[in-house]
Fold 5-methyltetrahydropteroyltriglutamate--homocysteine methyltransferase.
Amino acid sequence: MTTVTNLGFPRMGTRRELKPALEAYWHDDTKCASLLDTAKQLRRRHWTLQREAGAQVVPCNDFSLYDHVLDTAYMLDAIPERYRALADADPLAGYFALARGAQRDDVDLHALEMTKWFDTNYHYIVPELHAAQTFRLRTHKPVEEFLEAKAQGIDARPVLLGPVSFLLLSKTIDGSDRLALLDRLLPVYAELLGKLKDAGANWVQIDEPCLVLDQDMDDHVAYRTAYRVLAQIPRPKLLLTTYFGALDDNLALASQLLVDGLHVDLVRAPNQLDDVLDALPRQHVLSLGVVDGRNIWRTDLDHVLPLIKRAHARIGGERLQLAPSCSLLHIPIDVSLETELSSELRSWLSFGRQKIEELRTLRDALKSANALAALEDARQRQVSRRQSSDVHRPDVIARVDALNAKDAQRASPYLTRRDAQRKRFTLPLFPTTTIGSFPQTKDVREARAKYKSGKLQHADYEAFLQEQTQQCIRFQEEIGLDVLVHGEFERNDMVEYFGEQLDGFAFTKHGWVQSYGSRCVKPPIIYGDVQRPAPMTVRWSAYAQSLTSRPMKGMLTGPVTVLQWSFVRDDQPRSATCCQLALALRDEVLDLQAAGIGIIQIDEPALREGLPLRRKEWASYLDWAVECFRVTASGVADDTQIHTHMCYSEFNDIIEAVAAMDADVISIETSRSRMALLDAFVRFHYPNEIGPGVYDIHSPRVPGIEEMVTLLEKATAVLGPEQLWVNPDCGLKTRGWPETYDALQALVEAAHIMRQRVAVVA
Ligand SMILES: Nc1nc2c(c(=O)[nH]1)N[C@@H](CNc1ccc(C(=O)N[C@@H](CCC(=O)N[C@@H](CCC(=O)N[C@@H](CCC(=O)O)C(=O)O)C(=O)O)C(=O)O)cc1)CN2
Ligand code: MET
Ligand SMILES: [Zn+2]
């Protein structure tokens, strides 16, 4: 009979219980037992919840105290030498040191790199390997979590990150070939699988998400080798699990690997079903990802049921499993907690629990007529969404339709604008600025929490924010920054803040999704046509400008980033929604200009992560993404200076698109790479101005003046001094005031030194 399964569950808890437990332990390591106890309770609660919702197979080892890639590296003992003493003495402290670094007594360890998990807003820790890397089983976490579930009467299916994806998601520090380590890695996977079998596991979900990427011949050989070796040992059955896209040209390979079943993503890639059915070996189990693990909409069951029936007719119920498209890590847990949403909107939504319930309905619909009522209910929800006048706004559609090429084009070419702007602002060489946010201290967050819960009056909250903004501006003036910012104290998050003010958006109370470690975001939900009922940032920017005679930079989040970090409607192309956002933000840009704000920054840190996973789809994405940015930015006069900001980006592949954005100034993150990320701009002869970050804001460490001067010298060696700005890598919201004060003072001093050096040469 067809089985309802799940591939992974959020870890943080419906009330983010894991977050304070983690942060308490990081602050005070005597809280260790309490952290582990919270974690155990969460696992138990989540297994029970999934069973109650209808999952017959629930995952284990999907839980993590920080990140599952880090767990895998740690388990395999793939930890760099510098952490080893600490990890041996105190395994938990060693584990977190890899993720967060450690400074105490005689220990000073920096953290491993963190990067985006495929095209999600989740970040994983990048394992750091080298040519002489060896592996062994350092922990038995998957076995322990399997036994923990078993003790609770649950026969869970352990999740492992597969050996090939593990290597492909890692990096080597010596430039050696990651896949060359496979031979050494496989015996450890074999040992682990043997132990899982001994513990009683019948099946293991082995994730190889890299199978949806462009993979070359070497990668293919690695998959073949891996699963041939793992076929030769006594082990549980393996469900080879792929998600976030189509197998496409990797399908033949995936179906030939010596495993026992295959999971495919039919949400992102519904069209692959027939090919998958054709390729599937006769004994294989097939797991169909039919509800969207990446988004929060209820599934159109009438659309999905025929797919399932087709598979059922071909392979029968025994070999068929129904699942979310991917782990539910990327969505919140339970929509029934969102009592403040309108009941109509809520009826369109499905969070983790509801996704599993939908799978149960589908399973029931396959086998009996009893599910008719549930199907009809689901149908009504779709109809109500399709017909809602809240969703569909003819005036918005008309405005998008009326867009033309001129709307995406500044009035004059860059050099003309540059002259107009130089006349207007008379900035020195190496102008200094920051990226927008200043420390979001506990005070700021507490005041907002009190205001939102009604414990702080509106006027008092306003006065508090004004006070913060004033202090921030005084501080910037004192240390001598050239272009100021207001500090973003009024914003909870750079995306949520805008979502809260736009029509077509809804926001949740408990819809937290893990971004990295204990840090979460609450992505807004774009459910309808987007419109801006009133200016969003003008009041704070104008207030800030009124406090200083220096230029105040307006601060907006760009359309692509708002899109990328929200839950986006699935009833029209993402590009259409992005276009609506671009128009709403264009109006904001124009209102800022009208209010006298002459410099406006439009942040697009997520532009690059929105790139499709397959290269053949890049061009069409970049076309509309850049176009949307330009629609937002292009309405202004020549002497209004448009900045953009992109952090965590590798620019080599997309430099043409970045240039096509035609921002007058772009700030980027370059300090960790010691300016290496600048190479693309140099090679491309990027014509506009650039602020390469000279201060790594991800660490409390304060960079010295000379260190920043050295970075600026490097930049000046390859770009003209008149092209360069001086700024940190990103906003300062996660920093504290003391280090911010010292670091920015040093940054201004570094710019002074550069000005003198250039003047002497001239
Ligand atoms: N959307 C988004 N995605 C992003 C980024 C980003 O800035 N935004 N940056 C990159 C890195 N990701 C990050 C993600 C989250 C955080 C972060 O600091 N998150 C905060 C929550 C931020 C927030 O929304 N805060 C709200 C709510 C704060 C809160 O939890 N309030 C408590 C009470 C707090 C108190 O009394 O101290 C409550 O409501 O219970 C606010 O400031 O208003 C956290 O997890 O701690 C930082 C970086 C990539 N993706
Ligand atoms: C993740 S990019 C952040 C940009 C934003 N203006 C800030 O300074 O926080
Ligand atoms: Zn940034």
